[in-house]
Amino acid sequence: MDLKSKRIAKNTVFLYIRMLFLMAVTLFTSRVVLDKLGIEDYGIYNVVGGLASMFVFFQSSLANATQRFLNVELGKSNLHEANNVFCQHLVLYAIMAATVIAVGETVGLWFVGNKLNIPPDRLVATIWVYQFTLLSLCVTLIGIVFNSEIIAHEDMGVYSYVGIFEGFARLGVAYAISVSPFDRLIVYGFLMLVVSVVVQIFYFVYCRRKYIECKVYFIWNKHLLKETSSIVGWNTVGTAVYAVNDAGVNILLNMFFGPVVNAARGVSYQINSAVNNFTTNFFVSVRPQIVKSYAAGDKEYLLKLFYKSSKYSFFLLWTLCLPIGFSIDRILNLWLKEVPEYTSIFTLWIFAYSLINVLNNPIWSVALAVGKLKKYISIGSGVFLLVFPLSYIALKNGCSPVSVYIILFVVRFCYLIVVLKIIKPYINYSAIEYIRQVVFPILVVVIVSFVMNFIIRNQIPDTLLLMFVFIAFSMLITGATIWLLGMTINERSQIISLVRKKIYYENN
Known about the structure:
There is one protein chain. The chain is mainly alpha-helical and about 500 residues long. The chain is about 85% helix and about 0% strand. The protein is built from 19 helices and no strands. It has helices at about 5-55, 60-75, 80-115, 125-140, 145-150, 155-180, 185-210, 220-255, 260-295, 300-325, 330-335, 345-355, 360-370, 375-385, 385-395, 400-425, 430-460, 465-485, 490-505. Helix 12 packs parallel to helix 16 and helix 15 (about 385-395) runs antiparallel to helix 16 (about 400-425). It is globular.
């Protein structure tokens, strides 16, 4: 492995340690929070959080833009321009946070009080939670630039340590609401705000002391703003569509079915988020290298990352989704004291969606590196925007809440095909090579491992102990299938060589 690949591997290890801890904490605290708040209040928190996030739907757009510009300048070793990017984006985000507060306290507050399906006796608590969530999102919005600096520098160690702190903080919040004599929904919203503020203060102090380009001063560079606005503008369109589909569909479920279905959706997304962290953390390590390799003109390494990151990110997610999917009812009954209706079927469909969506991460990273987003966003988002109106039509005509997940899956699959065609001229990748190196290995692994797991699961009695045995055995089977059928001879040889070198160095 060359130096760049070793850096990716090292950073991935840090992120996986962070992820494993946060996954355990998330699953435990979700159980406690759902139990202590109750299904209704948990559903209220979920839908209100989704509504508040709509006012900062461009948050990921800004993060993508900041990381992209910082990666380009750091890839060129241009610290002066990196400092300009840092300061300009910090000023820009502060202005946006003030705008979000103004809109959220007018339009958003009216919507909470007049349109959401909230029991009258919980309206005051709902408004308090909305206020705390809005403030938390604005604090996080301003902190994007500091978070982006850490990722651009590939300093994943500190990123992991802060994540572990967040995990302990959430455990503290879960304990606090279990013993609080006050309204638990309000207390939960307030304490989550405190955690966000503490984390962002740490990022600010760390970046100021660690990185030379993080000197803060006021700047209003029209040229830089023009370049940024091009990336952010089109990126914002894409994230606006995502916000409509995500928070908008959640609101539709609330309006048609009430907060109990929002609770089921919230639980399914918690599980999916925990599982998805495996590939998300992998891609946090890979993305800076994709941008930097494009900026340096290293097309060979760029295409290598494009193909391999697509395949392996899918394999990582599939290895977890498969055994969990086969055991989802038993897991939910073990995890939660009271399982909201539709939770298991929601989880299975969101897994299917995530497996399609994970293939978009490398595509999106390449598009960001190239910087030409107009066609990508306008056409791709036009396809993805179909989720919301199709979901409304389905629910209006009496379909079950599961229908929105089926629509989400089908539309995202169509979206993936469209954006693959859009980025082809930018990096001139071979469609045949993509099928050979990505699609074909994935199909072989999915079919073989699914059939084997299906046969084994039907032969094992449905007991708690044997469920854990099956999950462990399933992951071994899937891993063996990936090793034998999903990897090339060269890839297997590289891994064997790396392990041998590691053992040799440790013994000498």
